[in-house]
Amino acid sequence: MASSNSLMDSLFQRSLEDLIKGLRLGESTFISKSLEEIRREIKLTDLSTKSVALQKLSYLAALHGVDMTWAAFHAVEVVSSSRFAHKRIGYHAIAQSFSDQTPVLLLITNQLRKDLNSSNEYEVSLALECLARIGTDDLARDLTSEVFTLLGSSKALVRKKAIGVVLRVFDKYPDAVKVCFKRLVENLESSDPQLLSAVVGVFCELTAKDPRSYLPLAPEFYKILVDSRNNWVLIKVLKIFAKLASIEPRLAKKVADPVCEHMRKQNVGKSLLFECIRTVFSSLSDQEVALKLAVVKIREFLMDDDPNLKYLGLHALSIVAPKHLWAVLENKEAVVKAMSDEDPNVKREALHLLMAMVNEDNVTEISRILMNYALKSDPLFCNEIIGSILVACSRDSYEIIVDFDWYLSLLGEMARVPHCQRGKEIEHQLIDIGTRVKDARLELVRVSRALLIDPALLGNQYLHPILSAAAWASGEYVEFSKAPYEIAEALLQPRTCLLPHSIRAIYIHSAFKVLVFSLGVYYSAQEPTSSSLVQESTSSGSSAVNGFTYDSISSLVSMIELGLCSLSGTIDVEVQERAKNILGFIGIIKHEIAEKATSQDSETEVHRAIAFMEDVFSEELGPVSSTAQEKVPLPEGLELNENLEGLQEICREVLEPMAESDYSSDKVSFSVAKLRIRDQEEASSSLPPPLESSSLLAEHRKRHGLYYLSSQKSDDHKDRDGNDDNTSNEYPPANEISVDSFKSKKKLSKPRPVVVKLDEGDEPKTKPDASSSNDEPLSRAIQTALMGKGKGKEKERVKENHEINLDTENIEQSSRREKKKKKNGERSSKRSSRRQKDKEASVTKPVEVPDLLL
Fold first, then answer.
1. What are 371-412's pLDDT values in tens digits?
2. Out of 500, 539, 787, 810, which could bridge 551 as a Cys pair, Cβ 3.0 to 4.6 Å?
3. 612 and 511 in one domain?
């Protein structure tokens, strides 16, 4: 009865073709129904039905991601069939679904061994393909002898696949090298192009992991390079020599001649020609003849209409650019022309090459060319261009930038590019240049003012970080501004409501700095400030006090007060607090501003409050090393507990919220003036500061003086004139490239400004990879096999003499043991120690290239 049911199921079973037709009909539940049928059919005892079910399951797993791990045992059953069609389906399912964690993996070891020893070359081929895909440590160890036998098979198909499976066996079981490596090397002398291609491909993969171990095989590879006419074999051999020549420079001179011969051939394939060029650029760049020939040949790729060949040409130039930039400069016209190519990969490679050409002489022209391309490029490539310019110009603390006024203007232009999304990077560089380059602060304030008064930038969220940096610079370096009133007006314009609250807080704080600076100049009675640095009088009939008039100061205060009134009730606490602080300050000083015009008293309470705020903002900010915290030494005796549960008990008083009765909104007032008066009274007293705090501060400054930045502002900036000279912002016409623009020019007469650099090692250190290489056992096994191979002929030459003298030496040694037993025992121990040392030295002895090639 069971056999009749099995027969009926096999007769009406749907084949793989039926499954595919059903899937094309688009039935939503067809896959689930098919899986139910497969689960039922695969449990039957008939191998034909089981194999068809397994075939359908493999198809669903490959195309629809259906899980088939549950059918692992059934795949083993199908593989055991004597029919080749069943074996093929079973091996395909095993290769597709088995992994190192498959429970039934050990069950196929004997089946693989049986099929590897089969007389049917196609069954052997199936077993080898399966082993190459799922081979584990145990399978590689148990089947090494079978693979060794197949490496010498007379059937080309079997030997070719055995050569391919060696790569998996060596990787999983390095001791297999002792058995199979010699026969693998022998296949390098095969006249069959398919076998030669397979074995060279295996050595190409092995050389990529550890090229030094394969240096003794250089003569065999050289012979193939000279004699072979197969392009794919030659490409693999060139890849091998590219690795070997990089660690053995003597090989380069020998290999350069045949490589040049291949490049000079008339109808050489493009793939082989490119591999020759890449080999020369990467490993034979010291050979002048080969390098010049490769540069000539690379132009054929750059001038070709095929974008793939053009990309390969640009990629090859990017390889040689670090060592021989002249090769790129000779093809600069083609590189710039590639920037307008339709292929994005070609444009990207051309951009990288242009960035490799940049130096302090041509950075202005190249930047202008790239900015022109950025304006007419898609958003993705536009931002890649801007990012490349920012990275190249800021490298090594702006080493290639001589004219910082020009560079700051360029940063301002980047913000106006329609697709610009590099706001974070531009923000960082604007602030960084302001803190590092003092001579560039006047231009920084000018660029910042232009950004703040541009209403179109407020609506672009990607540019908000740039506006944040511009607002900070305008307030921090307001003394370089020619129109503080305009800056304050731009900082408090109504459209700033489009900005995030965090940036609006910076706007308000910068407006506070502008107000304090203006009031300080107005109340200053010591030195008159240059009229070029202050706001001109808004009323021609008013008398000026230190460059500011009563009308201009009153207008500034009223404008700030009006702009902040609406912000004092905002929901963001940071913006609300800053606005109320400034309004409180204005409430204190507003009624006494008018008295300054007639009063001669310079020591009023308001004047002292303004002077106090000037002192607060007078501390100059400087750059901080990104690794500064890591360099602070850990104090001796400091114990850090990983568990911080006791922190709440220790800091109970600090962490507990204060009583609400301590605060009253009616009692909050601005008392900066009182604080200033109290500080002056304490300073005027004759009591010296506590000795303990002074000594601790001095000791800390002595130990960590590296992290103390100078707080003295140079007065040089105040003496600079306010001429709005735009000569530094003139760029060469876009896309017009002269030959001299890429060559070195005379240094500019204008000296390069001083750039504040931090201590060496500012960049964060990358931790070295502590993990040992997984290929180390394989490399040792290869070296041992090759050294044994090199010594084989020498052993054969001395074998006869050794056998003749063996008896005589044994007699002499026995007589010595009888006469001087004790002394010989000591010598024996010394010889054993020497042998141990020789053995250790042989392991670490570097592999040498035979003189046959060199």
1. 999 999 999 999 999 999 999 999 988 999 999 999 999 999
2. 539
3. yes
